[in-house]
Amino acid sequence: MTRPITAGIDGTGESLAALAWAAREAVRRGLPLRVVHAWRFEAHDAVDTGDRATQEQWVRSSVEEAVRAVAGRHPGLAVTTDVLEGDAVETLTGAAADAEMLVLGSRGHGRIVGFLVGSVGQQVIVGAERPVVFVRAGDQASNEVAGHEIVVGQQGEPEDSAAALGLAFETASRRGAAVRAVRAWTLPPVFAYSPASLQLLDEAGGLEPYERKALAAALAPWRERYPDVRVIEHVEMGSAGQVLLSVAGTAQLMVVGRRARRTAVGGRIGSVAYGVLHHADCPVAVVPPA
């Protein structure tokens, strides 16, 4: 089954930028584009918002206008549109399940808008089975230029970041970009050292050489699969979120893995994904585990 690139839109500037980004990515990958709008009928006594049919027509007209604009920029692109009435989280999570990736608009800097008002975006990330990409209103095709890298975070064992690395390398190969693979490390509490870990560190020659070897091991299969992609190995002491943000300025796309957990009040995403979503100016892809 051919999975489309799916863009969730709501008429905001952020979601229209997400639609433009999704269209470009669909063209690069030779995939169709699916445009999804989730809506609910809202009746207000104070103002005339029209009946259900009127509101739906307004929504459809807005979506059709946005789709016409993007289709005009990409004449050969196959585009389908779905205006779906229902809960935004359920609609978007369902759309992600059938997509190569789901693309949404994001404002960041402590506040996420559009589909991401309140906990909606966070719940979509937690529930999505496919990568979810967040795009700012100011994003343009001109940001996808030579010299701008695909930045990806790597942590833990090779399998822990395999899905994120896979997306980063595939994207870089299609764009002719380099991959900057970032592994951040910190000094662990002395009580965290076990005899076995101390032996590994001793064999590696210390903490930083150990981290460099761990990153190289995680990258090895992807270097072999994508020999055309130039790789920059970036190992730095510090928190993962801070190190990733320090190199976000020249990123076409930042890719991070998802560490999500469900609580009594809903899903929560990991601190690294949360930090870069709110503060990175480039598009951010959050990738679930393989």
From TrEMBL:
Domain UspA: from-to ranges: 1-136, 150-288
Signal peptide (UniProt feature, chain positions): none
A Pfam family that the UniProt record links to this protein: Usp
Gene3D superfamilies: HUPs
Domain of life: Bacteria
PANTHER family (UniProt xref): ADENINE NUCLEOTIDE ALPHA HYDROLASES-LIKE SUPERFAMILY PROTEIN
Designated name of the protein: UspA domain-containing protein
